[in-house]
Task: structure prediction
Amino acid sequence: MSTVSWITARGLFGRRRFLMLFPLPVVLVLLAVLSRSLGVDPGQWGPPVLVGLGLAVVLPVVALIVGTGVLGAEIDDGTVVHILTKPLPRWQIVLPKLAVATGVTAVTVAVPLYVAGVLAHSVRLGLALALAGCLGALAYSALFLALSLLTRRPVLLGLVYVLIWEGLLGNFVSGTKVLSIQQYVIALADRLAPTSLLETSVSVPVAAVMTALVSVGFTVLAIDRLRSFSVAGETS
Amino acid sequence: MSEPTGVIHDIGYQRYTGPRLGRRHVFGALYLHGLRTAFGLGRSAKAKIFPWLVIGIVTLVAAGVTAVRSQLGEVVMTYAQFADNMSWLVIFFVAVVAPELVSRDLHSGVLPLYFSRPLPRGDYALAKLAALGSALWLLLGAPQLVMFLGAAFTTKDGMSGVWDELLDLLPGLLYAALWAVVFASVGLLIASLTGKRAFAAGGVVAVFLMTAPIVGILSIMPSRTVNELAMLGSPTALVHAVGQYTLGDLLVPGGQTGNQLGGFGPLYVAVAVLLVAACVALLFARYRKVAAR
Result:
C-alpha cells in the first residue's frame, strides 16, 4: 500500500463526517429485511429497493461524496501542493486515489446490495448485484475523480449528472440512457443473473464496453489534467 | 538637553455619532444579502452558473407547458402540479444554495464578526432561512406566473376566464410556499452541520433522495394503515400529501383523493408543521453551539 493511498484513506476515515455515509447502506438493508419479513412480493419491492434506492441513489451518491473527496478535498484545502511537489509520476498519485475511492465505494455499496439481492431473489442475484455495483463504483469514481480536476465545483457538476442527466432526463428521454453509468450497471447485473426484477434498454456488450471506456478514459484524463494542474484560491 | 519637540497630530479620527439602525436593519441586510447570494447576484459569473441553470430549466418547462396549452388547448399540468414535477430540480437548487448561504460562513470562520453586531444568534439563522425560503418560492412561483400570463392572454372567456385562472394560480403559489418552507428548513439544517460546501451539497441530496424510496416501500406494505401513512416517509411526499389534503383536485385531478391518505389528512398537516418547527429549533440550537465556540 503506497503512501498516497494511505494518506487518502486516512483523510477519508479520519474525519467524523465520514460517518455520514453509513445511513445510506443501512437504510437499504433495513428496507429489504422489512419487506422480506413482512412477506411482500419481491416483484413489488425488488425494483424500488434494488434499482430505485440501491443503484440509482446509494451507489452514485456514495461514489460522488467519496470520489470527489479523495482529491477534491485536498485541492480545496490547498494541501494537494504537498503531494504535487513530491517527485512522483502523476499516475502514481491518481491511481492510488482512484483505488481507495473505488474500494471504499464498492465495500459500502456492494455489501448491502448483496444482502438485498439475496433477500429479493437468490444468492446469484446478490453476487451479480455486488459485482456490477463494484464495476459501477469504479466507473463512477473515475468520473468524479476526473471532475474534481476539471472544475472547482465537482460535487455540483456531479449532482447535475446524477440528478438531471441520469435521474430526470433518463425518465423522459430514453436516448440519454446509452450514456448513463446507472443503466450499464443494471444491464451487467441483469446479464449475470437474469431475473424479472431488473430492466434496462441498454444491451450488455454496449454496457460492458462503455463501463470500461468510462473507467479508463476518465482515469487517463485525470492523469493528464494533473500534469498541468494549477493551484488556485477559494472559489468566489 | 533639549525639550522633546514631537507633537501628537490630530489626524481627525472621530467616533460615529449618527443614528444606529439596530436589529431590524441588520436582519434586513442579512436577508437581502442571502437572497442575492442565492441567485449569485453581485458575485462572479461562476457563482451564477448553477442557480441560473435550474431557473433556466424550470422557466423552459413553464414556457413549454404554456405553449402546448395555448396551441393545443391541452392542460399538461396545473399550477400546483408544477411544483411536484420540478421536485428534483428543487432538491438540486437547495443543494446549490443552502451550502452557499451557511457553509461558507462556517468554513471561513466569520461568524464571530456577525455575532459581534447587535444580532441575536437566532436572527442570523432566521435571516438565512428566510432568504432560502424566498429564493425557493421565487423559483417555483415565477414559472407559475409565466404560465398564468400565457393562459390569461390566450383565454377565450374574457375577464371571467382570467379570474378563473387567478383562482387556480393562488393555491398554486401557496403550495409553492409550502414547498419552500419545508425544503428550506430541512436543507438549511443539513447544510449548517458542515463547513465544507461539497459535503453539505452531498448531504442535502442524500437526505432528500434516500427518503423517497422509503415511501415507495411503505406504500406496498400489506397493511392499509401503513400504506396511508407511507407519505410521512420523506419530505417530498409529505409536502405532496399536505397539498393533496388541502388542495384536493387541484393537485390530483380525477377526484381520487382520500384513497391514498385515508383519514390521516390532518395528521399530515400536523407532521409538516412539526417537521418545520423541529428543523428551525435544531437550527437555532446549532447556532447557539457554533456561536459559543
Remarks:
- The mean pLDDT of chain B is 86.
- Chain B touches chain A at residues 43-44, 46-47, 50, 53, 57, 88-89, 91-92, 95-96, 194, 196-199, 201-203, 205-206, 209-210, 212-214, 216-217, 220-222 (CB under 8 Å).
- Residues 121-154 of chain B form the longest helix (34 residues).
